[in-house]
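Minutes, project check-in
Item: structure for the 152-residue chain
Input as provided by the requester:
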Amino acid sequence: MEVDGLATWWLVAAVVLGGAELLVPGVFLVFLAAAAAVTGAFLLLFPELPVAAQLLSFAAWSAIAVWLGRKYYRENPVASADPLLNDRVARLLGQTVTVVQAIENGTGRVRVGDGEWLAHGPDLPAGARARITGGSGAALTVEPLPTLETHS
């Protein structure tokens, strides 16, 4: 295959990868598209570049592009309208729940919405109210709510 044809394939690959990133955004294919574009440009500048060197160039530029992209996004995080979207426990912090299976020896179950979660905390009887203070994995950490005392 002639050199211009190979360079064209690399540049077409860059456009296809860039288009795929637009159709299915994931902030990853754009880095591969950049690597393919750089490889195609190198092939235009150095027409005798063997296929093995082209593949090595693509791999190296892919790694460099991903590294630079990760560094950029780490230093410039994208603001989210809902930063706790994928952190279910953080979304539950502070909510009041009802103990459905007594917490004994530090473990029981609480009702959260229409579901039940494993709970860790001080011993509490079934029916007691508690507040979510933390969690780990699929278990919540709770603390008892203060009881209201009435004086007659």
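Outcome recorded: The two ends are 97 Å apart (CA to CA).
No further action items on this chain.
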